[in-house]
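Reply to dn_fold:

You asked what the input looked like. This is it:
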Amino acid sequence: MGRNNELAYLNQLYATSASQLIILYGQKNIGKTTLIMDFLKGKDNLYYLAGEASMRQQQYLMARQWRNRGLEVSQYPEYSELMQAFAKGSGDKKVLVIDEFDHLIKNDSDFMEQAAALVSGSYSSQQVLVILMSSSVGFIENQLVSRIGKSALSISGFLKIRELKFEDVSYHFPDYSLEDRIAVYSILGGIPGLWRHFDPMITLKQNICKNILSQDAFLFEEGSRYVREAVRECGVYYSILSALAEGMDKLGDIYQHTGFSRAKISVYLKNLMELEIARKVFSVDTRGRDMLRKGIYRISNHYVAFWFRFLYPYYSMTATLSSESYFETYVQHELTDFCKPYFSEICREYMEKLARSNAFGFEVYESGIFDGKEGFIDYLGFDEEQDRCVAAFSCYDKPYMTYEFYQRALKSLADAKASPEMIFLFARDGFDEKVTLEAKVRNNIRLLRMEDFLV
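and this is what came back:
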């Protein structure tokens, strides 16, 4: 689901007449293995999942997998022997997939050297496609090339598997209301490995109670487990993430809350950003840049944000309350507020889709949010000279967008020094009479309810 472009890319590589090596990576549960298993159908392939092990133990386990596929290798083979055995034969291109390959190279460079030799044809003229997979995004993007040295020259390309979109969540939960689909997307993000823990045949509340808030549920600890597997000094990271989840989004706010030095917080935020657990918010550059809020941070992983917002602060209460009582006490009344930025994200994706179809009458050269000192613009898209632009605002915390909200939106545009040719207004259920009348009087305002633009 939602991986047609990635699958086409892999098949294109397979169809080329040369041997190649690519790095395929993405965060845990993103759907890498499902994609690869689909790609491998009907192809001569060997798949190996590398776990934590010493080099000798790793080679022993790999040899067992090789022999299971009918290849002759010794009990404790060198990587060169494994590659040579794989390269034997002729015919269609062979595919070698090593999943979580970073476990093989963090303390030993020989594997990458031998993989490079395999691709270069040192062992055989047999064409091969080597796919090295990893869930360690930070390692791949920040350390891999320096770690493997000249072997990096053998890499043909990198394929990053990104989160799926809201529309993919909609297809997975077809019987849910739009509001509930937005909640699922807000909680679980575009990570299909988490979706499978929600049952589309029961209600949203039942899913949250049964599959998140129950102490024996897999997702009960997943928010902390995801962070714990990626970092050390969890206490420091948890404190910072908890502050972010409570809306303390500036360095000074986190400093006041945690008591950690600003320098220490900066280092830990940098690590969280490399791991794609947190992100720094950047606004589109406008003539009103002096009105921007700067140095803003957010938790980028949806489920980590949910866990630190709703479970971490009241963790002890999970032992004393039923999951239903916990939901009604700590989650139910704040869930809409939690979903608000993700509805903004969905609206922004819709605007980007319109921009790609040239729906605005000009080519959008630069776009993004405007996080102002006194207001927020969900989308601003400019042409190259910043002479023409389009803007969008979303309202999710109330069913109907009010005229007061619209007036604040105009104030935000004035702060940004932006004069949009078109203004898109997104609301959950509709608009009050004054906003509706304003849209009739002015022909450059587009009113969109959820049902008007979401599948």
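The CA atoms of residues 209 and 324 lie 6 Å apart.
Hope that clears it up.
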